[in-house]
UniProtKB/TrEMBL annotation:
Name this polypeptide is given: Ribosome maturation factor RimP
Gene: rimP
Broad class of the protein's primary localization: cytoplasm
The Ribosome maturation factor RimP N-terminal domain, residue ranges: 12-85
Keywords: Cytoplasm, Ribosome biogenesis
Family to which the UniProt record says this protein belongs: Belongs to the RimP family.
Localization of this protein: Cytoplasm
Source species, domain of life: Bacteria
Amino acid sequence: MPGELASRLQPIVAEAVTAAGFDLDSFEVQQAGRRQLVKVVVDADDGIGLDEVAEVSRKVAAALDENEHVLASAYTLEVTSPGLDRPLTEQRHWRRARFRLVKVTPAEGDAFVGRVGHAGADAARILVGSELRDVRYAHVAKAVVEIEFKQPPAEDLKLLENDASGTIGAETEKGSK
């Protein structure tokens, strides 16, 4: 039942989130006793703050109330932003992680840590040590942002900024090791 309900509610919620100017990162409906728990995770290129989460929450609640016939029961709405531990699974996640340190576990080979540069349609440019690598999303088993407690080296940021146009996909893929 929650899966079927989620498939009917997802377009309603996605429209409300998009109308508020944000991206629907994930959506889930769970049974919580007699109520439905509607979990909505939203994001934006510049991140999302508490005020924006509250705004999206009001818009999603209004959309759900307008479509109460779809829910047909009481619900609890939970709207949040993705945490730092969210895996980078889509190009927009990589784009939003620009200049951040990430741990990449390739489908084949050893995991490595690098700083994200330009994120293209099929691959991201990553600075690993002093080497720029093109890492195809399709060859990544898992990637997550690493928490940093100090400012990244200015020379790394400058190198990635200067490489912003990148040649992702134009060279042999060094990042699939």
